[in-house]
């Protein structure tokens, strides 16, 4: 089961895992490459950290993915515009789903 998760997590889609207290606990290499980050710039930080503002996520707003999922939505999608270090802008469609622990409890 762990190897299945690893294989999915390390797929070509950018993925990040955030706990229900808004801490970024994991990102895959695709996420790091796309947003031109180092893992230590994001892992362990709150998703709404001002240092991460350039990523453009709707953190700490009514459109926050976590808040929408906590309201009971099975998934939440939105368009994301992110500013890269060189000043260029990339646009992505974000698809957020609940992350559950081994017992099926909402974890983030």
TrEMBL record:
<protein>
    <recommendedName>
        <fullName>PAS domain-containing protein</fullName>
    </recommendedName>
</protein>
<dbReference type="InterPro" id="IPR035965">
    <property type="entry name" value="PAS-like_dom_sf"/>
</dbReference>
<dbReference type="Pfam" id="PF13426">
    <property type="entry name" value="PAS_9"/>
</dbReference>
<feature type="domain" description="PAS">
    <location>
        <begin position="18"/>
        <end position="107"/>
    </location>
</feature>
<dbReference type="InterPro" id="IPR000014">
    <property type="entry name" value="PAS"/>
</dbReference>
